[in-house]
Amino acid sequence: xxxxxxxxxxxxxxxxxxxxxxxxxxxxxxxxxxxxxxxxxxxxxxxxxxxxxxxxxxxxxxxxxxxxxxxxxxxxxxxxxxxxxxxxxxxxxxxxxxxxxxxxxxxxxxxxxxxxxxxxxxxxxxxxxxxxxxxxxxxxxxxxxxxxxxxxxxxxxxxxxxxxxxxxxxxxxxxxxxxxxxx
Length: 183
Fold this sequence. Notes:
The chain is of the alpha/beta class.
């Protein structure tokens, strides 16, 4: 059985081979319970990192919920305040729920905790394409991203998300899966 890190690299390396023939974006979907705290924070943090790295044409980022509790609601105030504090741009949005079509459309589906993973495995019939991961796996850690909805601790959630997103971007960049290298 492959370790999670090796499996992630195999997924990204597979995309590199595909990119050499078909230049395309890597599409990442961040997922949490309600799509108002952690997954939109990850979406906007990753978009900012991608922009700063000049990879906007190479990497597409979105977020969604596993559950329906918050569908239609904007990003939670505490998340927006933390993003403002850290200078991370964001826009008004509405929480959406992940669908089976998203599983087909996205290259990586990145959950925030084990509950998300279980929901995603159930929705995808056990993830036959190996797209489902937890964010902290990219940073070499086997743990959940702290949930500020329950803890009120947006600082820890932000630090977890920043660490995971930086590690994910580094893995993508190191894999050579950059559109500009394949033109």
